[in-house]
Amino acid sequence: MNSRTFERFMILLRRELWESNRLFIASPVVLAGLILVAMLWALLQIPEPMKRQAIQQMETYLQGVSPFQVMPVFMAPAIPFVIVLYVCAVIYLVNALYHDRRDSSILFWQSMPVSNLATVLSKVVTVCFLAPLFAALACGVLILFSVTAISVLAASYDSVIAGFWSLLGAGLYSILLVYLTSVLGALWLFPTIGWILLFSAYVKSLPYLWTFGAFILLLFMEDLVFGTQFLANWVESRTSNYNYIVFSVGDFFQRLLSYDMLIGVAFGAVLLVGAVNMRRFAD
Amino acid sequence: MEAIVKASGLTKYYGKFKALDGIDLAIPAGAIIGLIGPNGAGKTTTLKALLGLCNFEGQLSVVDRDPRAARHKLMEDVCFIADVGILPKWMKVWQALEYVAGVHPRFDRVKAEAFLATTEIQRHSRIKALSKGMVTQLHLALVMAIDVRLLVLDEPTLGLDIIYRKEFYDRLLNDYYDGDRTVIISTHQVEEIETLLTHLVFIDRGRTVLDLPMTGIADQFVEVLVRSEDLEEAMKLQPIHTRNLLGKKACLFENRPRSELARFGELHTPGVSDLFVAKLRSQKLREGV
Fold first, then answer.
1. B77–chain A nearest CA distance, Å
2. How far is the alpha carbon of A101 from chain B, nearest alpha carbon, in Å?
3. How high is the ipTM of this complex?
4. Could you give the angle at the alpha carbon of B138 between the alpha carbons of B136 and B142, nearest 5°?
5. Residue ranges per structural domain of chain B
6. DSSP code string of A149-206
7. Chain B contacts of A101, Cβ < 8 Å?
8. Per-domain residue ranges of chain A
9. pLDDT one-digit tens code per residue, B21-67
10. CATH 3.40.50.300: does it fit domain B3-213?
């Protein structure tokens, strides 16, 4: 990829964020704001002895433990962010290749020297790599707030907890892990992304109904015609969290390069080729 | 002159409906072509085929390319405004500028900004908040700043008031057209663009009914205001169309020498709209539709 192609692709990504800033930027920021207010309120409301007790428990718990082993604690606030991210990603993908056909603005996009492949790729990169970035950063604010609050409280009770800097290091590292987990989650669900985009490029109306209805129908038909549950089992395996929650960068690469992951990405890619072709003569 | 668009036997079906029925076109570089036809004649389908937006049968080359092969490459040399109000509503004016500047190698941002400065469009406005006329102004500002060889306008002024319509074509002619670029304008409001055009293409029910340079109209067509006593005589020469005008009969002849017709009355070259009606009616009569 030469620099000109890269610059052009960057503007396509900016375009996606201009259009979907509410879904991918505003919603995690608002969520972080709400949780932050709740945390502050809790800090003010919890009686002094309880806070002292909590800090002491933490001190005992953390004795002799490297701060990097407590990262799972810091990753917990990511759960609501990941849920919101998934909901927003589905809304985004269903409309990604549908909305501009509905309001005819596709003719404006098609009048520019941008290939359908580049357009579809920009949507995929947005949902797999950019959206998780904003979710992880917003969640990171909460993680950093927690680290600071624990350190300040500990200092005021003369407790010794791991040390501020190593807690901070653990916090920052867990932000990275939240990001990698979200990315891996998106890649793990890559066939879903391909499926939704294929329907988004194809349907003329009722995109949600078609996208999900067709899949449910397929599940049903398989059972009815072949008496098998291959698809259902496959969905079950894809939705089990075990496969994409990572606790280290090493985990990330190991899971990324696993056979199951690559098969899913390849299958999703086939569906994306379908979406690109569907868009060629669409209006 | 070299043809920038060459089409032969362009055919397109929508299901069983034949939208294009063997269109032939040869559009010379540097022309301003009016693609004129009634609603549903196949204008938009023809343009879509030209722009690589639909599949078709037959031969077609646009700027020496097959439009189906790589639309995004074609769009470096061709630009189009498909209809009013197709700019994405969620976008802001500055974002539209930024986007086109980012993706189009032939976009001159300074030129677009200069054009916008002559309008009341604010850079931070959302396109949704602009009036229909302003959206068209913005689109024109973007498109005129792109240096392409072929510009295609499909009913560009549909739904605009007369002031915006006039301004649109004035700007197009004065600030954009330079004699090298080719412009195709499709419309059914003929009068509006009549004076702009160098070439005329009529299409009806998916077929080319007429294709000639504006200068050829006078050679090929003549309208005579026939005196009532000469009417019978004139009708023998088979005018393609007649209409009542100021108590007389205006008869339109195709390929008849003026010398032969002068004896019936006053001769003049028909306007494009009269010619349009005449050609369409005569075509329908001939086919018994």
1. 9
2. 10
3. 0.89
4. 115
5. 3-213, 216-287
6. HHHHHHHHTT---S-HHHHHHHHHHHHHHHHHHHHHHHHHTHHHHHHHHHHHHH-SS-
7. none
8. 27-280
9. 999 999 999 999 999 988 888 888 999 999 988 889 999 999 999 99
10. yes
